[in-house]
Amino acid sequence: QVQLVESGGGLVQAGGSLRLSCTASGFIFSINAMAWYRQAPGKQRELVARISTGGTTNYADSVKGRFTISRDNAKNTVYLQMNSLKPEDTAVYYCNAVLKTWGQGTQVTVSS
Questions:
Q1: Which end of the chain is more exposed for a tag (fewer CB within 10 A), N or C?
Q2: CA dist 8 → 19, 56, 62 (Å)
Q3: Residue 73 per-residue DSSP state
Q4: CA 107 to chain centre
Q5: What mean pLDDT do residues 17-36 have?
Q6: How far is CA 86 from each of CA 12, 40, 41, 98, 99, rounded to the nearest angstrom?
């Protein structure tokens, strides 16, 4: 069964940090590109960051320099390190195995 399980969301003050984790099962993680998306209330889901099988990363302009996506193939896990968080980063964050499946989402709330 293909599955993604996210963790690490929560409530943080502006300027703080959080690290999201997403652990995969049911498919060969190392040969699948991975991504993080987010969806704020009343807005469309948007791509936050993507990492290829070879480790190449891409970021939304709004998070460049603040967020870092990484992967540990030995642990079947992809991470999103979020620093200098802003209230506008508040959203449900979803892990995505590109062209395969989605996680259930984890809430990130940044207070001003």
A1: N
A2: 6, 23, 21
A3: G
A4: 11
A5: 96
A6: 9, 13, 16, 27, 30
**Who contacts 42 (Cβ-Cβ below 8 Å, separation ≥6)?**
none
The residue type at 14: A
Q: Give the pLDDT confidence of 66-106 residue by residue, as tens digits.
A: 999 999 999 999 999 999 999 999 999 999 999 889 999 99
| Among 87, 91, 88, residue whose Cα is nearest residue 106 | 91
Question: If we measure between CA atoms, which residue out of 100, 96, 84, 79 comes closest to residue 39?
Answer: 96
- pLDDT-derived band at 46 (thresholds 50, 70, 90) equals very high
- Residue type for position 112: S
Q: Which residues pair with 25 in a beta bridge?
A: 3
The pLDDT score that the predictor gives to residue 87 is 97
In sequence order, which residues have a C-beta less than 8 Å from that of residue 32 and are 6 or more positions away? 24, 53, 97, 98, 100
